[in-house]
Amino acid sequence: MSNHLHSDEFLLSTPLLLNPQNNNMNELRNEEEGLSNPSSSINEPNTNEQLMELAASFDNNDTSSPSHSKYSPINLLSFCKRRTIEHYNNISLSELSGSLGDLGTFIPLTVALARERKIALAPALFWAGVSNIITGYTWDVPMCVQPMKSISAVALTDTNGSGNVGLDAQSVTTAGILTGGAVLLLGVTNLIEIVNWIVPLTVVCGLQIGVGIRLASKGMTDIQKLPWGGGYDCIGMAVACALLSMFWLRDSGSQKDKKKQEQAKTDSEGNTRNDVMATTGANSATSSDEDVFQENDNVEMGKVLNNSHQLETATSLNPRSSVSTTAHTNETFDFAASSAPSSTPRQQKQLSYYLRKVWSRACCCLNPFPKTPHPVGIYLFLIGCIFAAVTLATAGPDSGYDLPLYFFGAPVAINAMKDVTSMSWWNGFLQGALPQLPLTTLNSVISVCCLAHTLYPDKRDPVLEEKHRTDAVITRREVSISVGLMNLILVPLGSMPNCHGAGGLAGQHRFGARTGTSVVILGVGKVLLAIFLGGSALTLLDALPIAVLSIMIAIAGLELVSTGVKVLFECVQKEKEKTMKHQGHESVNGKAILQKNATVAMVTAAVIIALKKTHYGALSGWVVHVIYGDGFRNFVVWIQKKRAARS
After folding, report:
1. Which of 369, 93, 375, 94 has its CA nearest to residue 256?
2. I need a surface site. Which of 101, 128, 443, 573 has the fewest CB within 10 A?
3. In angstroms, rounded to a whole number, what is the distance separating the alpha carbons of residues 504 and 498?
């Protein structure tokens, strides 16, 4: 089912509309179809009419009443019910593994901010889980929810020039609110499309490559700080996890084998039909013989049990005959044991089959040719949990862990605006919101929509795809409004500043996630952890080995890099086809087109890696695109078209 069908129905049923223009677009589209085909508007009701009929089926009153409007809670409940059924049907090991793909980024930042008392961990976990659940219900892609990296980095740095802490807890709260308000304004006014029009796709590719390399390098740097030995959380463990991850993530050819099996099945379909009757006859004959054999066994065993019952009754009535009765009973069961047949070959085959099945389940992680991809996220997370349990079980009083663990005891919602001052607003704006806004706009909106468009081509909206848009799966406006509402509403209640990110989406996709079910699973886990173990959540997360988390970060970063390179080559191919269409085959120089686009992307990535500033990289790439690439020429052509249209 299409992802936009889910999103549109949700937007029609909830007051918090992420895309209020969808209804007008659908109405205009239906009117145009009605002009071209008058019968279509009569025979094919639109989505609004179907939802109104669904709402009317719950109540026999007139649909003109306020309770049956398109914003009725009945429509929202029906949407949530249908999405819940879909999530239940989509639950699998791959989705569960994919839900853990973003933990390598989420856990280190969250734990570090909680240690420095910049956030309250239980409310941060709870509201992050709520955001995951809402996101998983709204979109049918594994859209992650992760902390805003620029605000987190500034909050975790040492001091500013005056010797005071750069961002305290109150300034982190105000930075999240201001960033959310600015992104919401860009989405509501549709100014995000102007930003997307200014930033070329090659710069977006450079953003993905640069951010991906930064993530991978962060994981490797964290591993480098570990000792070679002396404990399980060491470089040796990281190397072992990396080798196992390469084995689990490699292309085992299972998809090719599956296609070959389907082709062979299609080719042999005729022969299979002819062999069914003969096989059925043979099976029926065999089953009849087995039934007769089992029937004879049952008759004999029935006789034996009947004799035994009679003997026991006689013994109870005449105790003196107990000796003779016991002897007769032993003779009877000896006869039954001798007359009962030994284990048949069929039973032996069944036993060996079950043993092989149990062994394959126990050693599924060592299967070199799995039918489905290995749930790498589950494997790595289980490895981390095992070593974390060992750490907490053997921790002494001087270990630094808050032991013993205790349930409940931590509120999941607080008033984060309690001690906010005017200086908090100023510091949050100057040091938090200003550096974070370009990163959120580019990486959390434009780049993540382009990434979803690339990873899930079967979920694209056909109308948007015909317009050659790069956000046909999830629109930029929807993501902008989602980030804005998430921070404006939840940050005052204790949530950390959150956003969506291309790195998290790439990591969850690499670990097996394909639908929004994985995000819902992760959200439920965060909510349960915050409610039941909120007071000890910091101890549990802090005990996870850095070696395992760093490998998960590196895998997510490399997946983002590979996706950026893939999109870059797609840009080169499209530009080449466009040039061939206008100028002919002889005048096309594919290497020159590749060099031009790759230069823009690589300059963007290099600045991001060197300066560790995403907006600096985007600005540098845009300048190179204007001067070295086609930016200036495209601007001149656009001006000429505007003048021609006016004249």
Report:
1. 369
2. 573
3. 12
CA separation for the pair 559, 102 (Å, rounded): 12
Structure token digits, residue 157? 């740095």
Report helix, strand or coil for 542.
Answer: helix
Here the tokens at position 263 are: 């082709």
Give the pLDDT confidence score for residue 567 in this predicted structure: 85
Dig out the tokens for 81 from the structure.
């019910």
Facing residues of 596 across strands? none
Nearest C-alpha neighbor of 499 from the set 221, 152, 169 = 152
Tell me the C-alpha to C-alpha distance, in Å, between residue 429 and each of 43, 178, 369, 615.
Answer: 55, 7, 53, 16
Question: Rounded to an integer, what is the distance from CA 618 to the centroid of its chain?
Answer: 27
Residue 491 CA to residue 485 CA, distance in Å, equals 10
| Listed residue (448, 458, 504, 506) closest to 478, CA to CA | 448
Angle at 188 (CA atoms; ends 184, 191), nearest 5 degrees: 90
Integer angstrom CA distances of residue 453 from 447, 458, 466, 470, 518 = 10, 9, 13, 6, 18
Residue 589's pLDDT is 79
Q: E strand or H helix at 455, and its extent?
A: helix 448-455
Which pLDDT value is given to residue 267? 54
Q: What is the pLDDT of residue 87?
A: 93
Q: Which residue, among 447, 448, 450, has the nearest Cα to 505 in the 3D structure?
A: 448
Q: Which residues contact 263 (CB under 8 A, 6 or more apart)?
A: none
The predicted pLDDT at position 166 comes to 64
| 420 SS3 class | coil
Q: Which residues contact 204 (CB under 8 A, 6 or more apart)?
A: 442, 446, 447, 450, 567
Q: Which residues of the chain have pLDDT under 50?
A: 1-2, 4-71, 158-164, 253-258, 260-261, 264, 269-342
Helices in 456-516 by DSSP H: which ranges?
A: 462-466, 476-490, 502-510
**Per-residue pLDDT tens over the stretch 516-527:** 999 999 999 999
Task: Give the model's pLDDT for residue 496.
Answer: 93
**pLDDT value at position 349?**
73
